[in-house]
Amino acid sequence: MAGGDLVLQENLKLTNTHIKELNRCLSHMSAGTASDCIAISMTAAPPLPSEQITAPNEQPVQIYPAMTSSSAPTCTIILGDGTELTFMEVDVGSPPLTGFADDVAGLNRMWDDTTPNWGGTLVLEIKGHPIPIVYWKDIYINSNCGSPWKPRQWRGMKSKWFNWKVVVYRYCQGTPTNFWDKFSHNRQRLCFMKIVQQLSQLRKDEDQATAEHARAEYAADFPTFFSYKKNGVSHIKTKPSDIAKMYWLLKGISGGDSDGED
After folding, report:
1. Strand residues in 31-150 grouped as ranges (E)
2. Do 121 and 129 meet the contact criterion of CB atoms below 8 Å apart?
3. 113/106 Cα distance (integer angstroms)
């Protein structure tokens, strides 16, 4: 037991010594000299570069900004070579300021890339692809959006585009020689607007003849096939252009240069 008492006494002395030392430190802390007892390092570890994350035993991983999906409307067209081109409004510039007053053949080369006449000439470009003029209406109207992408620009282009359409359609119905034989006077080729005016009159004459033919062919059934409803009331079509359009639709024949200014 005596040995145990000696060990206990030594432990008590050591404890008392620690208590005295603690009291001394506390008194110094209250006097603002705590640095004599406790040393605190304020040095922080240098941060890793923000553009890198290094995993153990791995190469640094480059961090890129997150790509967010866009809800912007898109338009898709299929070009003559089969390319499916999808784009947004930001990809489309204003309609090019171009004209074909003395170059119907040039218009033909730029109109449609599904024909042998396509020349691949660049006027309107989207994502590096030359866009044939025949697609311009679909691009600038883009009915998928509910409203035109560039309505003001398209209003300025609409009439011109329609005139190009009717001219190139007639130009492609035969040979260039046939076309200029029809639209020349005293061996001089007519100007572009004169051609448009003559084509407009020819179209009216053709529509009138088609309408008369439709009335004769359908006879008593004419009101059944050539009518429309407005405010719930049925009306018989009377405009030759409307009758002609419906007639070609019933026959499964494209009107070609019709319906250009819808």
Report:
1. 52-53, 61-62, 74-78, 84-88, 125-126, 129-130
2. no
3. 13
Total-model pTM: 0.63
What does DSSP assign to residue 54? -
pLDDT tens by residue, 163-203: 999 999 999 998 999 999 999 999 899 999 999 999 999 99
- Say which residue the tokens 């003849």 belong to: 209
Q: Where are the alpha helices (DSSP H) in 79-191?
A: 104-111, 136-141, 151-171, 176-182
3-state secondary structure of 124: coil
- Most distant pair of Cα atoms in the chain: their distance: 145
Quick: pLDDT tens for 1-47.
454 455 455 655 655 665 566 556 555 544 444 444 433 333 444 44
Q: Read off the DSSP letter of residue 146.
A: S
Give yes or no for a contact between 91 and 99, defined as CB atoms under 8 angstroms apart: no
- Give the angle subtended at the CA of 173 by the CAs of 247 and 104, to the nearest 5°: 125
